[in-house]
């Protein structure tokens, strides 16, 4: 069932969203050459505990994945793009790191992701990160009342096409609110004018992610980490947004974050 949130409920989701933004800001600042992924995991665990929040990932057990997820953040490196299981890995110069997190505060969830480059960036890595950021802003701009769900998907796909990146549609955005995953799948490619009509109070996690040269994915033996099938590098950017009477309200925007 699709639940439209009241303005007061969206405000409560925004409280969670600001905390998620704080977490991702700190992770981006801490991610550096020589830092172990498990150090980042434990830092985030501490932030969640001090805030009195709840991880949406801990014990998450969907149809995919091997057993319940027993971490609070997804950390995916280089060709890994989704559901990266934190493990004993020390970041190296030039690594591409995606951090994806969802938490709940007082019963309301928010979900966001960002990709950062550790140390010295390669231009092609900067380019794919920029593409996901631009695709997300295009999706947010399309999330207006009267538009269709397909308009959001088409906006993401158009940016991918402009950059020359293929698009996987198995995993994409989703509804969010009282739980991390609510009804509605938002593919990262679609047809304008198709699908559900967007209405104020609809809350969505929009998450364009691309691999440089393939739309196919493979899973690690851990049953969670998803990688590009050809080993090409990846990027993933995500925000939780609420459809309003006008422009969408971004609930997980980080302080100082560019809109492009």
Automatic annotation (TrEMBL):
A divalent metal cation 2 binds at residues 111, 174, 207, 238. Keywords: Aminopeptidase, Hydrolase, Metal-binding, Protease. GO terms for molecular function: initiator methionyl aminopeptidase activity; metal ion binding; metalloaminopeptidase activity. Residues 12-245 form the Peptidase M24 domain. Gene3D superfamilies: Creatinase/methionine aminopeptidase superfamily. Its EC number is 3.4.11.18. Belongs to the peptidase M24A family. Methionine aminopeptidase type 1 subfamily. This is Methionine aminopeptidase. It comes from Amycolatopsis pretoriensis.
């Amino acid at each position: 069932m699709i639940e439209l949130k009241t303005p007061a409920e969206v405000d409560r989701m925004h409280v969670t969203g600001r905390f998620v933004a704080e977490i991702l800001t700190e992770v981006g600042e801490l991610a550096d050459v020589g830092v172990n992924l498990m150090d980042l995991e434990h830092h985030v665990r501490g932030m969640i505990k001090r805030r009195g929040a709840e991880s949406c990932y801990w014990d998450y057990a969907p149809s995919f994945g091997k057993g319940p997820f027993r971490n609070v953040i997804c950390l995916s490196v280089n060709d890994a793009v989704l559901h990266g299981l934190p493990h004993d890995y020390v970041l190296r110069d030039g690594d591409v790191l995606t951090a994806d997190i969802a938490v709940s505060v007082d019963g309301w969830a928010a979900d966001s992701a960002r990709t950062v480059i550790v140390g010295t960036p390669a231009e092609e890595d900067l380019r794919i990160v920029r593409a996901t950021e631009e695709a997300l802003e295009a999706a947010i701009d399309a999330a207006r009342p009267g538009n269709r769900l397909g308009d959001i998907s088409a906006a993401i796909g158009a940016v991918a096409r402009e950059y020359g990146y293929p698009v996987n549609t198995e995993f994409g955005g989703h509804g969010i609110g009282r739980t991390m995953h609510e009804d509605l799948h938002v593919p990262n490619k679609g047809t304008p004018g198709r699908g559900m009509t967007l209405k104020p109070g609809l809350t969505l996690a929009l998450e364009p992610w691309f691999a440089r040269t393939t739309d196919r994915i493979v899973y690690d033996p851990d049953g969670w980490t998803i990688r590009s099938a050809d080993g090409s590098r990846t990027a993933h950017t995500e925000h939780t947004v609420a459809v309003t009477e006008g422009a969408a309200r971004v609930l997980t925007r980080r302080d100082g974050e560019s809109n492009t």
